[in-house]
Design brief:
Distance between the termini: 25 Å
Largest sheet: 8 strands, mixed
Mean pLDDT: 88
Oligomer: single chain
Number of helices: 22
Helix content: 40-55%
């Protein structure tokens, strides 16, 4: 996958929790990427730390959580560094979460309809404000670029851009009105079909004509319901008992469906919105914008080449003279990287945007370590001597490891940061100037539409009903007025998913959403999440302790144990070619319909992360553990370009160990089942 398709990047994340007994090291340096339109599953036992990164991404960590290092990059921001005000713009809007217990996620004394619409109305106000700011900023930058490209036409370009702003603002309002009317008309069609059926069966139709008229009034628009169709519809609904009513309704439905199939294009909307603006204005602006952006791309390319030279110089200083010497070059390096960021680009370069903050933060961490490490180490040694005296008296006493900052690790992080930035600039995403122009103009148009997006209570209710239908809740109008306690567990989880989808997010985090449900309902919720992902092109992080849950939905899988990712790969690689003994243990403990043998439990318990093991954390429970497993943490051994595992069994000098026969047999059955389904 290409670099620009990454929606979220987590890099060397380390999070601990302060407790009375000591510091619990919950996440110990994990990294992963989430791509557009994929599902990344994070799998592990309870207590493995798999839910901690997701809460850090959303900024909802516990009060005693301490982020000790790393970054979480999204849309040009490091989510670990932004303030709560910025999180309020992202949380629930572009980043949403579905929690494990649906009942605790819902207000028990508020109707579900109110809970669905409340966020929509509040978020629409914030979205209008953000869209207005984005529209002004991008059109101003585009005007500046065009004037730099054609300095002899500055006054002319100013007039053109003023017309363009006016054109896009009016076009956005016309498009929003057209879309709203067509959506209302589409909602009326199934009700009309139901009414025609009930009339034929001589069944009760009370309330349905009024409901259809309500939709029709909102659908009265040149692109939706015309005056002729409205007059005919009123005539039919005034006398629904007439013998010809069903045929006339179905005739109207066919005409409405034909209207809905013919969606107005941009040119048609533009003529209607801006009759006073020349027809060729759109193409003129596009041509000038493309030329200006091509010139800007050339400037950015030169800035990247200069930045690479400055970064390489700083990297040489770091390797030869250390972090103290790097401090003198930090400002120059940050300025060089910042010069490579195009502020008009709607697809933010997260790595470049967060480089300066990460570099300075790592340097401050190094300075703090040099200042405070001696004191912390001296205290640790005093505690060790005290523990030895207690042990000599027959008392049990354990001393937590000192909370010192590993200076070499920080230096390594700085080296990796600069090297990654150099590689990123040497291999930038290959996007043509023509394509970039399309993306930028489309983002300006989206902002223009967003400026007039005002969700009224009626629209919020209709959108909530559509969401309830989308997540599979029957009789949404009846359910809309019910309280959470009137729903089953599966239906409550569907409501929670609908609330998460209300603002149309980019990234959806599902934190064990099926754990509290029975097997049948689990399958329905997983199928629902899969369908929604495809329809909405969502990027999903799915957290679970059960490998079997993600077998048919994950694109990639990260297996976590004791705060680390121990195996990482595509779903096919992890299921069919597992390499870590912990993954073997998870597979062997996974129930299925074909296995008649007794399931194998993983022996022992996870380690106490106040005192993390020196070597491989899984060594105490691993029947294949070697001496080195108790002495040294294994590195990530690559198996394929997309698959690696952190186990000494993959070392070239390790004895050959085959996966257990029970796991191999289970994999063969899974393969056979998948081939049969295909």
């Amino acid at each position: 996958m290409e670099e620009f398709e990454k929606k979220l990047q987590v890099q060397d994340l380390r999070i601990s929790f302060k407790t009375a007994a000591g510091k619990v090291q919950a996440v110990r340096g994990i990294s992963f990427d989430l791509y557009r339109g994929e599902t990344l599953a994070i799998v592990g036992e309870s207590g493995s730390g798999k839910s901690v990164p997701s809460k850090a991404i959303l900024g909802i960590q516990a009060a005693n959580a301490v982020t000790e290092g790393g970054a979480s990059l999204y849309d040009g921001m490091d989510l670990l560094q932004i303030d709560e005000e910025e999180f309020c713009r992202l949380r629930g809007d572009r980043l949403a979460m579905v929690f494990q217990d649906p009942l605790s996620s819902l207000n028990p004394i508020m109707r579900v309809g109110k809970q669905l619409t409340e966020a929509m109305i509040l978020k629409s106000r914030m979205r209008r404000h953000n869209s207005r700011d984005a529209f002004r900023e991008r059109t101003h930058l585009l005007e500046t670029y065009m004037q730099e490209r054609y300095p002899e036409r500055k006054a002319e370009i100013s007039r053109e851009m003023e017309q363009y702003r006016n054109m896009e603002s009016r076009l956005g309002a016309v498009e929003k009105a057209s879309t709203d009317a067509r959506q209302a008309l589409a909602r009326a069609v199934p009700v009309m079909e139901r009414l025609a059926f009930l009339i034929e069966k001589n069944a009760d139709t009370s309330g349905m004509p009024e409901k259809i008229l309500g939709y029709a009034e909102h659908a009265l628009h040149p692109d939706a319901l015309g005056e002729e169709e409205m007059t005919e519809l009123r005539a039919v609904l005034e006398d629904p008992g007439a013998g010809t009513a069903p045929e006339r309704l179905r005739s109207l439905i066919r005409r409405i469906q034909a209207i809905l199939e013919k969606k107005p294009d941009r040119a048609e909307l533009l003529r209607r919105a801006c009759p006073d603006i020349p027809e060729n204005m759109d193409s003129l602006i596009r041509a000038d914008a493309e030329a200006a952006i091509r010139k800007k791309d050339e400037q950015i390319a030169r800035a990247r080449a200069e930045a690479v030279e400055i970064l390489e110089s700083g990297l040489g200083v770091l390797k030869s003279d250390g972090v103290e010497a790097l401090k003198k070059h930090a400002a120059k390096m940050c300025a060089a990287v910042s010069a490579c960021i195009d502020p008009i680009d709607p697809i933010r370069d997260s790595r470049a945007c967060t480089f300066a903050g990460t570099l300075n933060r790592q340097i401050r961490t190094y300075e703090d370590g040099k200042r405070h490490n001696p004191r912390k180490q001296a205290r640790y040694e005093r505690e060790l001597k005290k523990a030895e005296r207690r042990q000599a008296k027959g008392k049990s006493w354990t001393v937590p490891m000192p909370g010192v900052i590993e200076l070499e690790r920080v230096r390594g992080n700085l080296t990796s940061l600069i090297e990654d930035m150099i590689d990123h600039f040497r291999n930038p995403p290959k996007v043509t100037s023509e394509r970039r122009t399309e993306i930028i103009l489309a983002s300006i148009h989206d902002s223009a539409v967003g400026m007039v997006t005002d969700v009224t209570p009626w629209e919020a209710r209709e959108r909530a009903l559509r969401l309830m239908e989308e997540v599979g809740i029957p009789e949404p109008e009846k359910r809309y007025r019910q309280y959470p306690f009137e729903f089953s567990g599966g239906m409550r989880q569907r409501i929670v998913i609908a609330i998460a989808l209300a603002a149309d997010p980019d990234v959806l985090i599902c934190d064990e959403p099926t754990t509290a449900l029975d097997v049948t309902i689990q399958a329905q919720i997983l199928e629902l999440i899969n369908r929604i992902k495809k329809e909405r092109h969502l990027s999903i992080i799915f957290i679970t302790h059960d490998l079997g849950v993600v077998a048919n939905m994950a694109d990639r899988i990260a297996v976590m144990y004791a705060g680390r990712i121990v195996e990482y790969g595509t779903a096919e690689e992890v299921f069919y070619s597992p390499a870590h003994p912990y993954t073997w243990a998870l597979l062997s403990s996974m129930p299925d319909l074909d296995t008649k043998d007794r399931l194998e439990a993983i022996p022992g318990t996870p380690p106490n992360m106040i005192y993390p093991p020196k070597g491989d954390a899984f060594a105490e429970r691993n029947r294949y553990a070697m001496q080195i497993d108790f002495e040294e943490q294994p590195p990530e051994f690559p198996i394929t370009p997309t698959h690696w595992a952190a186990t000494w069994l993959l070392h070239e000098d390790a004895p050959k160990v085959e996966m257990p026969e029970s796991v191999r047999h289970r994999i063969e059955k899974m393969k056979a089942r998948m081939e049969a389904q295909a």
